[in-house]
Design brief:
Strand content of chain A: 15-25%
Largest interface: A-D, 59 and 59 residues
Helix content of chain A: 25-40%
Order of helices and strands of chain A: EEHEHEHEHEHEHEHHEEEEEEEEEHHHE
Shape of chain A: globular
Largest sheet of chain A: 9 strands, mixed
Number of strands of chain A: 18
Strand order of the largest sheet of chain A: 17-16-15-14-8-13-12-9-18
Distance between the termini of chain A: 65 Å
Oligomer: homotetramer
């Protein structure tokens, strides 16, 4: 029986900050990426940081990290660590990412970059100075079905795209009796616009490009919510947001997001209309793409349901048979592989801090337009 | 063997102007309404008017009318005629409807009322003066599934509605090589906004009510089309229109229509979000309603597909078994029965000229907003 | 104004026996066929027969027939009547059809031909002697979507068919507390096998051909039902039937029918597997055909949903726009047009008494196989 | 920074034999189970066996195992190994499982147990003697949606089940020009019956129980395939199999499998009919359950689509938000956790060698029935 350890190429040294849902997702991805893809050395899970030493220790044991700390700066200072996963609440992203980049680490940071745009710009600047890789956790773009959509559009399968519709809906704020919480305060941001809009906008950017001009509108399904201390308190931001879009490509579009949409659980619907066909996608069935092409006999034209399959890379690295279905967490494993690819200097499919800035600029422009009541240029 | 004719209650005397698709639909409805419903006397199909005497005669034979004429004023002058169906191109509606109403006829007029709003207002005024019944051919509201939706909303099944999304798409202008035609000229109107928007707006009005304020946007999928005389000619109106809506009820919404949407054939999708549930409807599967209600155990909640059934009146007058499916033309038969009911003074489910004005006012407000770049109040 | 009556070609003289659901359907079809198709003279609705003179008279007024009678033989004796629609309970079909054919009438008879196979054979013999047209009311085959399926198979779009699956389900016997009734007695026949199997078998025959050999199985979801007189009474026949099929073409298949299938309202699902593709159809969405073809790039292969459209004849006679949807009753209008075509000596798409015998022979073979426990040849 | 290794409870020692698709799946599961569930010690991946030392070494590096060997008996002999994953071709299962069990190891063996029933019985006997845990890799039962179905049935949500339909279809043998291979020889087994039937039967067993009696039928879509050496060679087994079922519970059913079904990629459809409702499931959309319940107002009854959610345990261990979707490989992680639970003496949701025998006995009975042409009792 041969001992394997010595022969393994030295994998990247990994540090993880945060162990909420996204932290767990990153950890699962770091654990799985080598086994799944078979073409990268197994990452070395060196250190995990959490708010308390106790939690850090417990989570490190659970997630397979060798050491634990209550001080995330320990990771930044650790010379063996090559990449730092940042999965803390958004308001901590900027300081952590900037410190990591300045210490020469690559950064894998959850989206959005930061609640305030100035912080996001500072992150971008630090990244540009660093020469390191900085990747945002826009995992929906990693879906092989989404890559198929990008490929189809790129190859002209539906011709020049002239119109898009983007919707994102969940129902975690749909119950009007959900108590008033910090997320309902104005200081927590715009509401659904912050929570959701970056996701469909990331998909739009990935498959089609950026937005030139927006007109925004926001709405409150409910005026108030019960306050934990008794009585009701007025909601200060918006559980619904809408925007008319003029894309850089010249296409028209609209975006609408709703976090009070009963029955919608993880819906991100894209409808993409082109001069030769239409593509429809719904994240709730994300192993499927709907494609209509104006071709062949009219009598047999129709929307076809394409099931994800090994032919749609890198689905094949997970399952050799078609139609068996990837899971949401698998998208993070793909993202992890792309990050490693980017670090290795390969062509990689990621959204970096420049992309992040473009997406967040669009979000802020929508809010700005809503405040001013007119069209706003995103890059003005 | 008994002779039936003498015993039959004298049915309404009917005149029909126009025999295009909607004319045929009216004729089929007049032929079928008594057999289908069994509670109205068979209408007497007295006279049909078409552009030429020859066509009128041939169509009268085909559609079961007793006499034919090339002059629609013959119908207005005929004292035996009680109701006139007006199914000509929109630009003729006003003069015909006004003449018929002034002659004491009831009017069943296809939508929209008129290309120009002044004409529509004149029709409304003539109707109000006449004391007669005037019904617009908004047949989509006659769908038992749509009545179910109205009933569910009315009974509070999904609670107070706070957000709606309306889409209508077809693809008859999707081919960029379809030759330039009159419909692409500015003089033909706004484009998709005129062609389509009244339909979803009629459904919205029927199930929920009116629109208070709009912000409009229009777009051209293609800049030009081949001109029959050679070369290409710039398209002057818009195959796509979008609008943000603020409803009279306080709900937010959006509307988008596209007559260049490849693969969409008769799609009118409604998404209606309420405080206790969500309703989704798609005209391409118009015998189905999707309903989500927040009730019962969370583990078995989900959107349910309700198939039209005898319990959804008046489906039962067509088919005694559930799930067998009404057809598009059946909706016109229901509309015909409602029209008769309105004439008989019964509670009836129709959109009259007041409703028509409200709908068309909304359309014009969207166009106006697009021109001005700001929100427009519909009733300003 | 010209008088139309004199100029109309003399249409067929029609008699109708029975005014239950199917009787109403026939009447609606006779009223609509000329207006819908525009290429046949308007039928003259001469006489209607019902069980009582009073009902006959009332229904004649409702359905547009000129005379009414309580004696169906009056219709047979009426020299002006060309076609007799037979829509009475199945046990009366044989005597009526035979009398009508012997009197030189064409016959349009609802399916199945007769509860007993000997009666069905006698009908077939009378028909062959008569030289007249006899058409069975298998209206599901008249669906333009079903004709598309037949055309696709005929043209080899999915290659040689090697396997089929047929299911038909409704839920009108699903409630175990539905009182015991005549239909649950052995004397009423096999149960679901009689009620349903002819429908999918008619579709199979229409698109693919006949069945050579069967193995049958039947089952009772419930052992007994409450008896109206108190207590419970054992159910004597079967609400579920299944059969393995060996088709004349060599393809394999299976058939299963269930009249106690909660939630299924009018489901007839066909799955047809061929060497180059697969076709799936569900009557509950009968304006759609699902088609998979092994062609083109693998990455964009998938089942496509084809919506019924004018290109699928004769959908265009009802609606000039695609995707608007035919209704169940429209299928009877098409059947009526085909019947007239057959009478006029045109190529027509109908199932006649020979087809009916082949279908009913298959049903009886399934029952026979169930009784004997072995494979049965249908034509043995 | 604290060192984690010492504090971690000693996890199970794992050996893996085989690194094809299922071997990779086991490895991914062993790597992920602790991070995903958070309530088990991280397994120690000790040794991997493959056909050659070189491959074993490479795969061990990839999949995270500490040592590698070309002799699987090294794993059986290793006192630190607690559990052996057996993922080799089926014909090796018996000797490996028996050796492992006899050496006091727990066994996680891919399905089916063995090509020959005698071997399966020997495995069962060895397992019973051993007192160890033996779990079969029927991962489809681990789907939270499937557990929901079992729960709903168990709680009587659809009442007593009286009828089931099971279908499993893929298209990897649908191309008639796929060259003749070993799998087409009679010595390779029955064909689709072996490949597929155990899967729906495992689901049936899991949610409802066993099969008492069967009637089988098999069919060949194609008579022959091109032989690699030229010419064509007759196919010796069957790409399609069907069976009528009489369940132990008294319910009726049918099963059909087809490995030549164009367009079907991973379809396993269950239709389960009960006295109070119906459940439908399709593996191609395995994050959804369709449920119809006869309850409430008839006008809002319909099949509801339930999306997998945290409330459906253990979905919540993967994703805290509903509707985001598990992947096929996640099912193996759940299976791994159940296996550990069974080893720890907890209530666990697995199919063991007794279940495996019952399933495989059913498969052999179907083949036997086909050979003999009559009904066969499964436990005769």
């Amino acid at each position: 029986m041969s001992d394997v350890a010595k022969s393994v190429g030295k994998g990247l040294g990994i540090g993880l900050i945060g162990t909420g849902y996204m932290g767990k997702c990153h950890a699962l991805a770091w654990n799985a990426v080598a086994s799944t893809f078979g073409d990268v050395a197994r990452p070395r899970l060196l250190a995990l940081a959490e708010a308390s030493a106790e939690l850090a220790h417990a989570k490190a044991a659970e997630l397979g990290f060798a050491t634990a700390t209550a001080d995330w700066r320990d990771l930044v200072a650790n010379p063996d660590i090559d990449v730092i996963s940042i999965t803390t609440p958004n308001r901590f992203h900027a300081q952590m990412a900037i410190a990591a980049l300045e210490a020469g680490k690559h950064v894998w940071c959850e989206k959005p970059m930061a609640p305030g745009f100035a912080d996001a710009l500072a992150m971008q600047a630090a990244w540009r100075r660093s020469g390191k890789v900085a990747v945002l956790g826009y995992n929906y773009i990693q879906n092989p079905a989404m890559r198929l959509i990008r490929k189809l559009i790129g190859e002209g399968t539906i011709g020049v795209v002239n119109h898009v519709r983007l919707e994102m809906d969940e129902d975690f704020m749909a119950d009007r009796e959900t108590p008033f919480a910090m997320r309902n305060e104005a200081s927590a941001g715009y509401g659904a616009l912050d929570d959701f809009a970056v996701h469909p906008l990331s998909l739009l950017r990935f498959v089609l490009g950026g937005v030139a001009e927006v007109f925004g509108e926001m709405a409150r399904p409910y005026a108030d919510r019960p306050h934990p201390d008794g009585g009701r308190r007025a909601i200060e931001n918006y559980d619904i947001a809408m925007a008319l879009l003029r894309l850089e490509s010249g296409a028209s579009g609209l975006l609408t997001v709703n976090r009070a949409a009963w029955g919608r659980k993880g819906r991100i619907q894209l409808q993409i209309f082109g001069e030769a066909g239409t593509i429809v996608f719904d994240q709730e069935r994300f192993n499927e793409v709907q494609l209509f092409r104006r071709e062949g006999m009219e009598e047999t034209q129709g929307f076809r349901t394409i099931l994800s399959a090994p032919v749609h890379k890198p689905y094949d690295r997970f399952i050799p048979a078609p139609g068996h279905g990837l899971g949401f967490n698998d998208l993070k494993v793909i993202e992890c592989r792309e990050l490693i690819g980017r670090i290795r200097g390969e062509e990689a499919c990621v959204l970096d801090f420049d992309d992040g800035i473009a997406i967040e600029r669009t979000v802020h422009a929508i809010a700005d337009s809503f405040a001013k009541g007119g069209w706003i240029k995103v890059n003005a």
